[in-house]
Design goal:
There is one protein chain. The chain is of the alpha+beta class and 74 residues long. The protein has helices spanning 16-28, 50-56, 60-71; strands spanning 5-11, 37-41. The chain has a two-stranded parallel sheet with strand order 1-2. The longest helix has 13 residues, at 16-28. The chain starts with a strand and ends with a helix. The relative contact order is 0.24.
Length: 74
C-alpha cells in the first residue's frame, strides 16, 4: 500500500516502533506514499490509577485513527 502504521506496547522513543519506523524510512522512503505513523506509549512513567491508565494506554481506536489519517494522504 505504500503506507505503514507500527503499533507497539512500548514507549514511543527508543522502542521497537521507533526502530522499525527508522529502518523503513532509511531503506524504503521512496516507496512510501505517506509518512510512517507510530502508535505507542507516551514517553512518561506508567500511571497507577485507573483514570490515568485509560488516558495513557493506546486503544484499538488509536490504531484505526492512525491508519485512516495516512490513507487520507495522497
Amino acid at each position: 500500500t505504500g503506507r505503514l502504521v507500527v503499533a507497539d506496547s512500548g514507549w514511543r522513543t527508543g522502542g521497537v516502533s521507533a526502530e522499525i519506523t527508522a529502518q523503513v524510512a532509511e531503506k524504503a522512503f521512496p516507496y512510501l506514499k505517506a509518512p510512517p505513523r507510530r502508535v505507542a506509549l507516551p514517553d512518561l512513567p506508567a500511571p497507577t490509577s485507573l483514570p490515568l491508565e485509560e488516558a495513557y494506554y493506546p486503544k484499538a481506536r488509536h490504531i484505526v485513527e492512525a491508519g485512516k489519517s495516512i490513507c487520507a494522504t495522497a
